[in-house]
Design goal:
The structure holds two protein chains of two kinds.
Chain A (H helix, E strand, L loop, with lengths): L2 H14 L6 E6 L4 E6 L7 E3 L2 H4 L6 E5 H6 L1 H7 L1 E9 L4 E4 L9 E9 L9 E7 L8 E2 L5 E8 L8 E7 L1 H4 L17 E5 L3 H13 L3 E5 L23 H12 L4 E5 L8 H9 L3 E4 L4 H14 L2 E7 L5 E7 L7 H7 L1 H5 L6 H7 L13 H19 L18 E5 L26 E4 L13 H9 L10 E2 L9
Parallel strand pairs in A: 4-6, 4-11, 7-8, 12-13, 12-15, 13-14, 15-16
Antiparallel strand pairs in A: 1-2, 1-3, 5-6, 5-7, 8-10, 9-10, 10-11, 16-17, 17-18, 18-19
Helix pairs in contact in A: 6-7, 6-13, 8-9
Chain B lengths: L2 H14 L7 E4 L4 E9 L5 E8 L10 E5 L22 E2 L7 E3 L13 H21 L12
Antiparallel strand pairs in B: 1-2, 2-3, 3-4, 4-6, 5-6
The chains are: A alpha/beta, B alpha+beta.
Chain lengths: 488, 148
């Protein structure tokens, strides 16, 4: 390759990476061609080409995670070559290591990482790592401290023989750089969250928290992704029929391949109570995004003794609104207290699945599935994520503590629309109200613990008081044979 | 409260509420608890109910069946058993012997704060509604409102 061609390539790479290089691209009006000149050169016959103008150039980019090179460095150093599989995207515009994320590329191609300048034809893509001296630019520093420049080329396709831009990225660090200043990298790496229910709301909360840097997820849901879920769920139609926990796992790993995800496709019921209790012991925070009272009550009851902070998050019917109850077990109202204190609101929940509809309907009078729109569930998931984040940063340094005082209530509710036949139907229009309650605003309410709650209160005392029974007054059931014609 | 403590207390409440016909019994070979008792309706008819207390009570709703008469014949000679799960008649799936199951509470609306005396009140109301159905031919749901 002649010097001018090399200089053009260097300039293009610098522009594509939005960094200053040694050369810049100029359109030479006299020669009527693109030339690369030193960035310090000034020419009256050339038009400088901006980065935006350069974006129209077709360029291939290869991305390799730094962690992959580090983990495989011994093999690369010993053998001088490491075959790899790359995902090809957009008709060969982009390649990435196939294991970088969870989704396979539109096509897979074979490549190799080699040490030094080796001409290898049997691989479509070859990534050469050339040692550089201390004063030269470098793309990679090996675990032994040697510096390398990465130069890649293609042996096939439309870029055959051409060099390809190579990015070696520190995924663990760089994936969260846009959060810096609010949540530093690694702040939540050791935090763990358990999510019950990976439907529209639950999966959204999971992905939101993964984006914030939460390091471990425990996911519980026995259901599979059905066709009716697709218009609301984060996962698309390619995932139809898959277990929701496994779909969610892939979505999380696609956001951050370094997090740990443990999946449990089990039903929340009495038979799995001990297993659930064991899982809860390992986590910092619980999100309950299931859609039925039975599971919520059971999770609430199990957690009362394990004492983990839990957020009960759910939408009202047809998602006209939603609510979040935060429980500090033993300190604040639990879900059972809420059920007893606000029975109308507790009962008002979306009917998001056949199973959920069957539970509340007679078989001869079905209840239609009325789950509501994703855009109406998402605000509830977002608020749940914010409340979760506030709990997870407790005791850790973050500028987000400025929100602590805003999130001091234990119950939050939100109304998406003035739904007919509800007490919110008469809400004033959003645009005409400042002081009154309206749609699309979160309201935080302090909700008291019920001392007579069967789950977290002294229910026995309450029952005795209600029925005028003395403290030790009870009647042990008599032993008896089974009644006639009764079989257990 | 353990299950035994809870049932001891509930038994006392049943006595206190004058429902000693529905006292909980213990069946030792099966290590299980049940209620088996009669209801004499306002018109003097007699019915027998059978309720096996679930292992996970009070977290699980206890099913209540009409043990006698079985079949339970409704208006016009139609067997109530034939309705199986019915919104109109407030019944759920029949027992293995075909006995009618009274829908007093649905599992989806049940919680551990509900006690057996409350269940028995609903059961007795169901029988009164059934007798209204016998007299008028109207469905049982005409006489009882559906719980939300």
């Amino acid at each position: 390759m002649d010097l001018q061609k090399e200089k053009i390539q260097e300039a293009m790479q610098a522009i594509a990476a939005r960094r200053s290089g040694r050369n810049k691209l100029v359109y030479d009006k006299t020669r009527k061609t693109i030339v690369a000149v030193s960035t310090t050169d000034y020419t009256t016959t050339g038009l400088n080409i901006s980065a935006e103008e350069a974006d129209m150039f077709l360029c291939e980019i290869i991305t390799i995670p730094l962690e992959y090179l580090n983990n495989n460095w011994k093999k690369i150093a010993d053998n001088k070559i490491l075959p790899i599989i790359l995902s090809e995207w957009d008709d060969g515009d982009v390649y990435s290591l196939s294991s970088i994320g969870k989704w396979p590329g539109q096509k897979e191609v074979y490549g190799a990482i080699v040490i030094g300048e080796r001409d290898i034809k049997e691989y479509q893509i070859v990534i050469q790592l050339k040692k550089t001296s201390a004063d030269q630019n470098f793309d990679y520093v090996s675990p032994l401290g040697e510096k390398f420049k990465a130069i890649s080329y293609s042996n096939a396709g439309k870029m055959k023989g051409e060099k390809i831009i190579t990015h070696i990225v520190d995924v663990g660090y760089e994936i969260s750089t846009r959060n810096h200043g609010l949540i530093e990298t690694g702040l939540l790496k050791n935090s763990s969250v358990l999510i019950f229910g990976l439907g529209t709301g639950g999966v959204q909360v999971a992905v939101n928290l993964a984006k914030c840097g939460v390091g471990s997820f425990y996911l519980i849901d026995p259901d599979r992704l059905e066709i009716g879920n697709i218009c609301r769920h984060l996962a698309g139609i390619s995932h139809i029929g898959r277990k929701k926990v496994l779909v969610a796992k892939d979505l999380l790993l696609e956001k951050n391949p370094n997090i740990k995800v443990y999946t449990f496709p089990i039903k929340v019921d009495e038979t799995n109570k001990d297993k659930i209790k064991e899982i809860i012991k390992d986590v910092d925070l619980i999100i309950c995004a299931t859609d039925n009272r039975e599971s919520k009550l059971l999770i609430n009851a199990i957690n009362i003794n394990v004492k983990k902070i839990i957020l009960f998050s759910g939408a009202f019917r047809r998602a006209y609104g939603g609510q979040i109850l935060r429980v500090y077990p033993g300190e604040t109202a639990c879900y059972h207290c809420f059920l007893l204190g606000m029975p109308d609101i507790e009962t008002d929940q979306e009917i998001s699945s056949d199973a959920n509809a069957d539970e509340i309907a007679y078989s001869d009078m079905p209840v239609p599935i009325e789950p509501g729109l994703a855009i109406d569930v998402e605000p509830i998931a977002t608020m749940t994520s914010k409340l979760a984040l506030q709990e997870l940063i407790k005791g850790k340094e973050s500028t987000l503590h400025i929100l602590d005082k805003d999130f001091s209530a234990n119950w939050y509710f939100w109304i998406n629309r003035p739904e007919p036949d509800t007490k919110y139907s008469a809400f004033p229009p959003l645009s005409e109200s400042i002081d009154e309650m309206t749609i699309l605003r979160w309201y935080g309410v302090f909700f008291d613990k019920d001392e007579a709650c069967p789950t977290c209160g002294n229910y026995e005392k309450a029952l005795r008081e209600q029925y005028g029974l003395e403290p030790n007054e009870s009647a042990q059931p008599e032993s008896s044979s089974l009644p006639p014609n009764i079989k257990l | 409260m353990t299950l035994v403590e809870r049932l001891n207390l509930e038994n006392q409440i049943l006595i206190r509420d004058g429902m000693s016909q529905y006292l909980i019994k213990y069946y030792q070979p099966g290590n299980s608890y049940y209620i088996y008792g009669d209801y004499a309706s306002n018109s003097g008819r007699s019915y027998t109910i059978w309720c096996r207390i679930p292992d996970y009570y009070p977290n699980i709703c206890p099913p209540v069946y009409v043990h006698n008469p079985n079949p339970l014949i409704g208006f016009g000679g139609v067997s109530i058993n034939s309705y199986r799960t019915s919104h109109r008649m407030h019944t759920l799936e029949n027992d293995s012997d075909g006995a009618v199951q009274i829908c007093h509470w649905r599992q989806s609306r049940w919680h551990s704060g509900i006690t057996l005396n409350k269940v028995m009140i609903k059961v007795m109301l169901w029988f009164e509604a059934f007798e209204q159905h016998l007299s008028t031919g109207r469905d049982i749901d005409y006489f009882v409102s559906t719980m939300k």
